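Researcher: Next sequence.
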Amino acid sequence: MMQRSSRVAPRRVGGLVAVAFLVSLLAAMVPAAIIAAQGSETPRLESLVPALNVRNGPGTNYAVISGLKPGQQVEITGRNKSSGWWQVKLATGRTGWVSGAPSLVRVTGDTANVAEVTPPPAPTGGAAQAARPGGRGILVFQVASGGPIYVVNPDGSGLRQLTTGIDPALSPDGKQVAFTRWDSSTPGTPGSVWVINVDGSGERKVHDGIRQPKSPAWSPDGKRLAINMQQGGTLDPVCYCPGKLPQSGDCPRDPVIVNGKEVTCFGEPAHAGWGLRVFDLDNGSYQDTPRDFASFTPAWDPANAWRVVYAGERGLMNLDVNRMANYPLTDDLSDRAPAFSPDGKRIAVAYHQHDHWDIHVLNADGSGRVRITETPLSVTMAGKPVWNNVAPTWSPDGKQIAFLTDRSGKWEIWVMNADGGNPHLLLPSAVQGRLGLQYGWADDRSISWR
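Model: Next structure:
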């Protein structure tokens, strides 16, 4: 047995040597094979949103030809670097274009060799209007403050996610959206103001180093933005204990020992100040303006570039940005979230009606107030909650107003005539239910229409 074993051993060793050589050869080849496979992986694009438009050119001015559902993937066949859009191949074999915004799509595979494709001529005249049904512009809205921001046509078609942020506002030409962001994960971290093209390209930060910025409003020429921001006062309660420096936070209920003595602490509740700032989009220069201690939701007059209207401590206030002076427009503290009509002749406001909110419209000089929303008596007589109607914004032709309402038991976007007539849903109730719209009761500028 020992001799047989000794004769077999050399053959086993030789076999192992051969196997080892083969393994080493394959090991040397595998990385190259993997690299080759990775380099040749077909680039693909996946939709990250509930409804992603596919158009016949790289931009929202091109007509919609199809759509992608969440998680649906398509092959990338070309690109247009200037717009940031991808050309894709649909299941039907037809090609189309999709925005490359990271908030909308995920791109996988090797895109280094994707060909630059010359897009078809951009539509003009009637074709351009066809991309916006009826020539009535587009709307942007936020699902919640700091949540997803969507774009949609006035007839409810073309719903797509644009980005995330707070209080979206369309530029006067309808091509860009301004919004703000806060870093809520780090208390006290300054916030920032951003701008993105409506097609999802060109997202960029335009102003930062400010605390809790909100409600960007465009100047009529689209060159400046006005915002409100936390400025002065304190966001937190302050506790004062004799013999100690003031500290943020609530005071202890029982007396404490300070320097060997028992003392009783007393506190002040949080009392934050909110100021206004105007800044230039080209060079970043800015100016903090006259304000009330609490100033909110600036609205720039489209007919008078010198004038901004905001909600202050005494009602609506006029701000002359040329003379840097402010003075009252109304004396009703219930007026909030002013929104100018496109011709600058009227202002819509959310108005606090004792225990709920409704929408009023008044002339730009503060006269001629009219209430245009109201809960029917049949609703209250049936013991149902009174409706809230907030966040008004005008259509580009001034004939309609979009707003948020909870009349169905959940927040939805509705549209009505400028006199309050013909109120109806913007999107099907089931669609709005899936979005989960919220209103934060902080003068949210939830909707913009241009």
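Model: Residues 1-14, 16-23, 25-39, 124-135 have pLDDT under 50 and may be disordered. The domain at 44-108 is CATH 2.30.30.40 (SH3 type barrels.).
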